[in-house]
Design brief:
The complex is a heterodimer. Chain A is an alpha+beta fold. Chain A folds into three domains: about 1-175 and about 190-390, Na+/H+ antiporter like fold, CATH 1.20.1530; about 400-480, Regulator of K+ conductance, C-terminal domain (Alpha-Beta Plaits); about 490-570, Uridine Diphospho-n-acetylenolpyruvylglucosamine Reductase, domain 3, CATH 3.30.465.10. Chain A is about 60% helix and about 10% strand. Chain A has helices at about 1-30, 30-45, 55-75, 85-115, 115-125, 130-140, 150-160, 160-180, 185-215, 220-240, 245-255, 265-290, 290-295, 300-320, 330-335, 345-355, 360-390, 475-480, 495, 510-515, 530-535; strands spanning about 400-405, 415-420, 440-445, 450, 465-470, 500-505, 545-550, 550-560, 560-570. In chain A, the strands form two sheets. In chain A, strands 1-2-5-3-4 form a five-stranded antiparallel beta sheet. In chain A, about 45% of the residues are buried. In chain B, strands 1, 2, 3, 4, 5 and 6 form a six-stranded mixed beta sheet that branches. Chain B has one domain: Mannitol-specific EII, Chain A (3-Layer(aba) Sandwich), CATH 3.40.930.10. Helix content of chain B is about 40%, strand content about 25%. The chains are: A alpha+beta, B alpha/beta. The interface between A and B is medium-sized, with 29 and 36 residues. Chain A: One of its GO terms (molecular function) is antiporter activity. Chain A: It comes from Methylohalomonas lacus. Chain A: InterPro entries: Cation/H_exchanger_TM (IPR006153), FAD-bd_PCMH-like_sf (IPR036318), FAD-bd_PCMH_sub2 (IPR016169), Na+/solute_symporter_sf (IPR038770), RCK_C (IPR006037), RCK_C_sf (IPR036721), Transptr-assoc_dom (IPR005170). Chain A: It holds the Pfam family Na_H_Exchanger. Chain A: It is a multi-pass membrane protein.
Chain lengths: ~575, ~150
């Protein structure tokens, strides 16, 4: 009994410390996951805590659940709209890309270390996939807003590439255990079955779950739990039937997040917490599991594997996989660098241990080191690099809080709260001059803890709390008015999109005439939208820019896949 | 480029009441035409409207910089209006516009045109200037503010 109480106490201390540390870490730009991992190691056998945890089976069970929850939440937060530009490159990276990464890393390291090539491949497969938790948390930290093509590709890739790495790892372990060296054709069948079943059950499960959520009347707190239970059911069933549970639960999440769902904001909020909890538990646990002293003993192979992976295998895989999509070189370079590894390689490295493979401990040590190296090197430099490569777009401001009006007559309506800052555009404006979008109404202004009498002459001030009931379609426009924050000059509206706005349907000849630009005759009759789409040789996204004589055209607003508005920057 | 080179107090109007985008553009065209004998109000208005058809020149935060190029004009000409109450202008932020700086350039000018426009946009992003302009005042007072 005493042991159990100690366990609870230690667990709670670790969780508490992780959460408190996360606040400090985000101030210094340290990747959070690295902090959790470090805390786990500090508490572990070689650290101050001296907790000697090496129960791989328990670690595997807990981390699998945690990973499933993270992928579920990641799916819910991925907008299906981002599939327009991100799905095809992500699919290519998640399949062929993982294979290339695994093979290149594997062959290089087995050559350097004098391992059998099958063992090298296994190591490559273990570290083959990027990590959803790492990618989601790093891409969304510090108000970082990447160009959609890059952000979407990386996010979707991280959501769907784990199954491939899991598949390769399991196959290789089976082959090594059985002493086989020649892969047979049955592999392709097994792969198709895993992915096909995962996709099918994920989508079917999503629809079924959605129907149930929208039909049941429950206490508010029950909805997120219902969703969680449903998601894990899909995951478990798919795995039991031999499909890929990770793929299934990601797709279920994706489906739920993109359909009208009862109590949606409530569900998203709780799952945000669930995902955080999972990340903390997962990384602290994996940190506990590792023995830093043993890892140091494997330092030479670990460093070579990390270097090969980061500087050779991932860039090569990116180059090959993205070649058909003609992405701008800056975006390719960024994707090549952002091959963030996280929990998955460490979890996969437990497989050989559980299977009792020779030298299994070395795989684990090497994989652990690779993850730490990737999170440190890539995680830390990701934001500055995106700035350097000019891949950031102006951040999208958001309300402090959103609550849906969950009654049948108010479908799609929400109550949103804003806290006005000095730089917010509406500050200082009298209420009567405010034009709110149709379908939205200002319901109250709080100042110094009391509601103001709103007459038309009243002016909004810094620190006011503003409450607006609005339809979700009008939210983006409201956010620009009420939530805008100070941004660095290159990311403010004028600095980024240029001085003026043009309609996507305006023709180049009209624009050229207006601004005295020289343009080739064959371009005269094109519209701006056609010109931008044509010159990008790719589906355009917000922030894409093209030079036109002395000015730059910047995609400012997309509508349903079309370029709706274009910024014109008069500076070069 | 100095603002004093393109603007004169006679092409400024403060504390104006109008009800629509069309009438404020007409008023701006009037200000320039009255001051420039070789240009008519109609051709100026048409030129400004032609630009608005390619997309609103409302920059957001209540400011608009309508502009155009004119064959007959010999020099770069500016005009400024401050409205008592904003008009719907289809600006980027959908908010009414109450400060307007119109700019007309000769057809021959190229680079200069772009530089002046960029300069104006930068000038009107200064929230302190914009706040002071909103308080209105006489033509000369507004002129002094803008000249800085």
């Amino acid at each position: 009994m005493d042991f159990l109480n100690q366990l609870i106490f230690i667990g709670a201390v670790l969780l508490f410390t992780s959460i408190v540390a996360s606040s400090a870490a985000s101030r210094f730009g340290v990747p959070l996951l690295l902090v959790f991992l470090a805390l786990g190691m500090l508490a572990g056998e070689d650290g101050f805590g001296g907790v000697n945890f090496d129960n791989y089976a328990t670690a595997y069970l807990i981390s699998t659940i945690a990973l499933a929850v993270i992928l579920f939440d990641g799916g819910m937060r991925t907008s299906i709209k981002s599939f327009r530009v991100g799905l095809r490159p992500a699919l290519s990276l998640a399949t062929v890309g993982v294979l290339i990464t695994a093979v290149v890393t594997g062959l290089f390291t087995s050559y350097i270390l004098g391992l059998h090539w099958m063992q090298g491949l296994l190591l490559g497969a273990i570290v083959g996939s990027t990590d959803a938790a790492a990618v989601f948390s790093l891409l969304h930290s510090h108000g970082l807003q990447l160009k959609e093509r890059v952000g979407a590709t990386l996010e979707i890739e991280s959501g769907i590439n784990d199954p491939m790495a899991v598949f390769l790892t399991i196959i290789l372990i089976e082959m090594i255990s059985a002493g086989e060296v020649a892969p047979g054709w049955w592999l392709a069948g097994a792969f198709a079955w895993q992915m096909g079943l995962g996709a099918l059950l994920g989508i079917a499960g999503g629809y079924l779950l959605l129907a149930i959520i929208n039909r049941l009347t429950l206490a508010l707190g029950m909805y997120p739990l219902l969703v969680l239970a449903g998601g894990l059911m899909v995951y478990g069933l798919t795995n039991v039937l031999g499909g890929s549970g990770y793929l299934a639960i990601y797709l279920t999440g994706l489906l739920l997040g993109n359909q009208p769902m009862h109590s949606r904001q409530n569900i998203l909020r709780v799952h945000d917490g669930m995902a955080w909890l999972s990340q903390i538990v997962l990384f602290v646990l994996l940190g506990l599991l590792a023995s830093p002293s043993a890892i140091v003993a494997d330092a030479i192979p670990a460093i070579s594997a990390a270097l090969v992976l980061i500087f050779v295998a991932r860039p090569l895989a990116t180059l090959v996989c993205l070649a058909p999509f003609r992405m701008p070189w800056r975006e390719m370079l960024f994707i090549a660098w952002t091959g963030l590894r996280g929990a998955v390689p460490i979890i996969l490295a437990i497989f050989p241990l559980l299977a009792g493979l020779d030298g299994a401990q070395h795989y684990f040590n090497i994989a652990f080191f690779v993850v730490v190296a990737s999170l440190t090197l890539q995680g830390w430099t990701l934001a500055p690099l995106s700035r350097l490569l000019r891949l950031q777009v102006p951040p999208k401001p958001a309300p402090v809080q959103r609550v849906e009006l969950d009654i049948p007559v108010a479908s799609g309506y929400e109550l949103v709260t804003y806290h006005l800052k000095e730089v917010t555009p509406v500050v200082g404006k009298p209420l009567k001059q405010l034009r709110l979008p149709e379908g939205s109404r200002l319901v109250g202004v709080l100042r110094d803890s009391s509601f103001l009498q709103s007459d038309g002459e009243m002016r909004l001030a810094q620190n006011d709390g503003v409450y607006i009931v609005c339809h979700e379609h009008t939210l983006e426009q409201l956010n620009k008015l009420f939530a805008a924050e100070a941004t660095p000059a290159q990311l403010d509206d004028r600095g980024f999109f240029g001085e003026f706005v043009l309609d996507g349907q305006a023709t180049l000849s009209d624009v050229a005439m207006m601004y005295g630009l020289q343009i080739p005759a064959e371009l005269q009759s094109r519209t701006l939208a056609e010109h931008l789409t044509g010159s990008m040789r790719n589906r355009p996204v917000v922030g894409d820019r093209v030079r036109l004589d002395k000015v730059q055209l910047v995609v400012r607003e997309m509508d349903d896949g079309r370029v709706a508005r274009v910024g014109i920057s008069l500076h070069d | 480029m100095q603002i004093s080179e393109i603007l004169s107090p006679s092409r400024i109007a403060g504390n104006v009441d109008v009800s629509s985008k069309k009438s404020v553009l007409e008023l701006l065209a009037n200000l320039i035409a009255d001051d420039t004998p070789d240009l008519t109000q109609t051709e100026i208005f048409d030129s400004l409207c032609a630009r608005e058809r390619l997309g609103s020149t409302g920059l957001g935060h209540g400011v608009a910089i309508p502009h155009g190029r004119l064959r007959g004009s010999k020099q770069t000409l500016g005009a400024f209006i401050q409205l008592n109450e904003g008009v719907d202008y289809d600006a980027v932020d959908q908010q009414p516009v109450d400060l307007l700086f119109a700019l007309l350039v000769p057809e021959a000018s190229t680079d200069e045109h772009l530089q002046v426009l960029a300069r104006l946009a930068e000038m009107f992003s200064d929230s302190e200037l914009v706040t002071r302009l909103r308080q209105g005042g006489s033509n000369t007072a507004l002129y002094e503010l803008l000249k800085e």
